[in-house]
Amino acid sequence: MENGEVYSSTTENVPSTSGPGRGSRRFPFTRLDPIRASLKLAELGFSLLAFICEEVVSLCTRCAGLYFFEFVSCSAFLLSLLVVIVYSTKLYEKVDKDKVKTLDIIFTSIIGVLFLIASIVFACTSDQTTPETVAIVFGFLASIIFIIDFGLMIVEILRKSQSRKPEVPQTTLTQPLNAST
């Protein structure tokens, strides 16, 4: 008896849509609605552009604001990239989804506030050169996008908490268990 005959009745070939040994080539954002997915990509893009424009600055007289902005924009880009990678790969299936959402809320809120502060500080300490001005504009845009994304996450949480509340009459909750009637 051949090995092919033994296994042919119990196994089936499953057609592969993405080719042998390769994953899907598109960047899936099925775990996020289209608005949140576009906000995540905008956060990623604006923080990268702010970092690149800040790196182009060749001379500064008061550099503390520039260095703070550099740290925040680089950190924002890397953390945003991490969140996008987790949401768009199979890694999301392997980790606790509630923890990913909680970390996303924490990252987004902290980065939004720090980006806003860094942009204000950099705007106050800059020499008003073109690269500095462009970096500041991208910094403000990134901070606005982060804050909008945080607001949408809070609205989503509030909607879910409102829909989960059971409708229990108030009188049954306030009656003592051992009351004699």
Folded structure, characterized:
Keywords: Membrane, Transmembrane, Transmembrane helix. One of its GO terms (cellular component) is membrane. The chain crosses the membrane at residues 66-88, 100-122, 134-155. Residues 31-158 form the MARVEL domain. The longest helix is centred in the last third of the chain and has 35 residues, at 130-164. This protein has one domain (29-161): Up-down Bundle (Four Helix Bundle (Hemerythrin (Met), subunit A)). It is mostly helical and 181 residues long. Helix 2 runs antiparallel to helix 3, helix 2 (34-56) runs antiparallel to helix 6 (130-164) and helix 5 runs antiparallel to helix 6 (130-164). Helix content is 70%, strand content 0%. Mean pLDDT is 81; it is low at 17-25.
Key attributes of the depicted protein:
70% helix, Four Helix Bundle (Hemerythrin (Met), subunit A), 181 residues, 7 helices
Give the topology string: H per helix, E per strand: HHHHHHH
Number of domains: 1
Low-confidence stretches: 17-25
How many helices?
7
CATH top level is: Mainly Alpha
**What would you report as the Rg, rounded to the nearest angstrom?**
25 Å
- Which whole number gives the mean pLDDT? 81
Gross morphology is extended
Major β-sheet, in short?
Answer: none
Roughly how many Å apart are the termini? Answer: 81 Å
CATH topology value: Four Helix Bundle (Hemerythrin (Met), subunit A)
User: Based on the structure given, which CATH architecture is correct?
Assistant: Up-down Bundle
Q: Beta fraction of the residues?
A: under 5%
Estimate percent helicity: over 70%
Number of strands: 0
